Amino acid sequence: MNILHSIGELSGLKGPIVLAAGTFDGVHLGHRALIRRAMQEAATCKGTAVVMTFDRHPASLLRPEKAPGLLTRNAEKIALLEEMGIPALLLLPFTSELAAVPARDFIASLVQAASRLRAICVGSQWSFGRGGEGNVGLLREFGAQWNFEVIQIDPIQSAGLPISSTRIRTVIASGDLDQASACLGRPFLVSGEVVTGAGLGSKIGFPTANVDVVGMQLPPNGVYAVKVLRGGSVLTGVCNIGLRPTVDASATVPVVEVHLFDFSADLVGESLSLEFVKFLRPEQKFAGLEELKAQIARDCASAGGVL
Which of 70, 90, 135, 208 has its C-alpha lying 20 to 30 A from 120's C-alpha? Predict the structure, then answer.
């Protein structure tokens, strides 16, 4: 897959160009339908389908205090798009300068750069340009002016409701991971890099990998049986999401720690993806480390029975 980082690089692709535009956080079933439609259109006109998205969620810059938890990091998003067979990805850095570009100027830059812009495929809620002033209706006006088609894709439904990234975040936060996976079309995963922890787990006989999940959408605090994807291998273990009240009474930010079964290598600096197979229990405060140690042993036995 050819990864571009500026609109001008579209000029190097074989035209006509068909864009699939969106944030695509999660690359869920609705996103996939939109992208497949762009690929079909490109095949018909013997052109190139391009997914156009941003390197960060726009809200993380425009409304950081209200930025949603992410369903996928960039590396995961790129891997999922590559699996779909999309030939090119336009991954635009979302900066203050880009956010200030008027809607008309943004679309004009696409028209100017593309060998020939044949179509733009979008969802019904897609917005673009300064302050989100552009919508599908305005995009159709630009399409008529600059001779490209606008293809609007209606939401895909699951269990009678439209699939959206917002819906998926909501059900994850509520603990309904089966519904999240149904909307994603694959198991829900939380990914991050392993960072150095305090080493307490090793001292009590249950070493853990601390996974940096800053910015990610997490399920409720508690203990889970998990499958852990490490490169091409799958490990199993038990994961705690929470504030660790037994050892840190002042914590306010959840920590994700996973104890891997029959595994002892140093994972610091590696990227892991966690699949939450079963919720085992809520997080709780224990009287001391011995009581915590005994409960972790019971958690491991429970997890081993379902993995």
Answer: 70
